[in-house]
Structures are given as C-alpha cells and as structure tokens.
Amino acid sequence: MIFSDLSKHARLSVAPMMDWTDRHCRVFHRAMSRHALLYTEMVTAPALVRGGAMHLLDHSEVEHPVVLQLGGSDPVELAEATRMGTAAGYDEINLNVGCPSDRVQSGTFGAVLMKTPDLVARCVEAMRAATDVPVTVKCRIGVDDQDPHQVLPDFIARVGAAGCEHVIVHARKAWLQGLSPKENRDIPPLDYDLVAQMRALFPSMRLSINGGITRLDDAKQFLEAGFDGVMFGRAAYHQPWDILARADREIFGDAEAEVLDPATVARNMVPYVEAHLSAGGRLHQVTRHMLGLFAGRPGARHWRRVLSEGANRPGAGPELLEQALSQIEQAA
User: Does the pLDDT of residue 1 top 50, yes or no?
Assistant: First the structure.
C-alpha cells in the first residue's frame, strides 16, 4: 500500500535511529499509532547498489506509512538506491544530511554534507528523477564553525529548488570533530527559533522540527506555532506509549482511535512474535524494542528485567511476555 498524501502523517514521526528503528521496532510502534510516520534506520546507497544487501529493504505491510532513509553522496548511486526503495514499496525516500558519526563521515555522507549544499541538491535532483514518491531531506542547522543563520536558509533554498518539498531539521549543530555521536545529540544547544524563522522564509516548504522534544504536549505547541510536523527521537523509543498511544487522537484528530493500555499493546504483539519465531527469528530481536513500554509505571523495572534476562535464552517464546506482564500486574 502506497500512501499518496504523507503530509498529514508527518505531523508526528519517529526519527530514523541506527540499531533501533528496525522492522521489528516499527511494527511495535505501529501497534500504538495508525497514523504516525515511521522511518527505517539509515540504509546506505552503496550497501544496496554495490553490496546487493536487499534484505535491508525488508518491511511488512503493517508498517505503512513508512519512509526509507538513505545515506550517500553519489547522485547516480542514490538514484539507483531510490529506485530500489520505490520498488520495495516505501512511501517516501529521505536523504540523511544529519548523522555525525565517524563511520558516516568516512563515507562522505550524513551531516558532513551540510558543507556541500550543491552536492546535496544534485543528489536530491537525481533521486527525484528516479521515483514518483516524495523525496525529503533530514539535516542539522549546520556543522562545526558554520554560521547556522547563513548556512541553513541557503541549504533549504538549494534543496527546495532541486525538488525537495519537505525538510526535517534537527535544531542543533553537529560537531564533526571533538564530539562523539552521543554527545552530538545533547551538547550542541538547540535553536528552535532559527528553525521557526525558516518557516517564515520558506512558506511553500513543508518543515518539520526535531531535537530534544520529549512530550506530546511539546509537539502540540510546535504544530500550533506553524510547523508542519514534529519528529521524535529517543523519547519515542524509551517512552513509546507516552508518545504514540494518544497521538492518533491528540495529534491527528482521529476521534475514533482507540487508546490501548500498555498491557494490551504487549499482548497484541504476540502474533507477530510467534510469526517471527516460526521464521527462525529470536525473541530478543523483537522484545528489545519493547523495554520502555511501561516507562514511569509501577512494575516497569521488573518488566525490563524479565525481558532482558529471558529473551536471549534458547527457546524463549511469547510466554515470556505473559511472565513479564504478571510482574506489572503484581506491582499495580
């Protein structure tokens, strides 16, 4: 199923996060929100085009609407990877211009591309020509010693002219030298005001904001301030129920959406877990994404302990979820 109008789904999205937002995580998140826009982990264009790693495109129908995020800097290679992603059924293709990791820099993609906006524009233009689904960009406000007030508007203007209609801005600089990827998520100061100025400068561009947003109420405020979307990162992973369970009603205005309690969400995952195990998978591959389901609630520590200690054991099955849920019920 291809979603033709993603603008409404992008009102709330879950960021692409390496080692986190895999296909099992996305199914789990979809169990709480029908409308939120979900993203893959970053998939590098070389891995697809040169490495033939087509398994990286695996996803299930229940994940839609879902975006494939690509990493790369070669327009020809990115165009081919875009064709592959489109053929695999993704609703949108996103270009990573925000990741600051050393591994990404060595491949000349990610946040380092903020230094070469013309190259990014050529990449976007090639990707747009290769698909009939939207091509979007996720970026930072700048890198290293760049002045974000000069860099960001120029960057957005260039990618917009190349055919990008939606930019997701992580409202922090990335320091490519001197800070680790983890530190880059916290230490550079947030500049929401600058991103808001882009909203006024580019009224025809769809603009979403990302970085440091931890509550659904915060998302509402950004949307009321005129942003087209809010992207949650770690908060959606570590506190998934708090962010996603009420989103369909409160962000998307779906009055008929059912707000499932966390225990029901867990039990609704059992058929998926059973199918995964039947296909030769391991329980831990799914349940590692579910550890934060009861965050802040009585029994949350016991829930995490039961799953963390038991899911890797040979033969572990869905009964472990019931065992963990019993810990929650005893603590209530």
Answer: no
Task: Provide the annotated active-site residues.
Answer: 99
The residue type at 315? G
Q: Give CA–CA dist 179/185, Å, rounded.
A: 10
Give Cβ neighbours of residue 87 (< 8 Å, ≥ 6 apart). Answer: none
Please say if the pLDDT value at position 3 is more than 70: no
2 has pLDDT over 50: no
296 touches 239 (CB < 8 A): yes
Q: Which of 48, 75, 102 is nearest to 159 (CA)?
A: 75
Of 87, 88, 91, nearest to 36 (Cα)? 91
Supply the angle between the helices 148-161 and 192-201 in degrees, to the nearest 10. Answer: 40
* Cβ atoms 156, 205 nearer than 8 A: yes
Q: Which residues have CB under 8 Å from 145's CB, separation 6+?
A: none
Take residue 116 and report the two structure tokens written for it: 């070469």
Q: Return the CATH number of 9-250, one of 3.20.20.80, 1.10.10.10, 3.40.50.11600, 3.20.20.70.
A: 3.20.20.70
Is the CATH number 1.10.10.10 carried by domain 262-331?
Answer: no
Q: What residues have CB less than 8 Å from 9, skipping those under 6 apart? A: 3, 35, 36, 37, 65
- 286/142 Cα distance (integer angstroms): 35
96 CB contacts (<8 Å, ≥6 apart)?
Answer: 16, 42, 69, 70, 71, 104, 109, 110, 138
How far, in Å, CA of 127 to CA of 245, rounded? 34
Parse the chain into domains and list their residue ranges. 9-250, 262-331
Determine the pLDDT at residue 328: 87
What's the Rg (C-alpha) of the chain?
A: 20
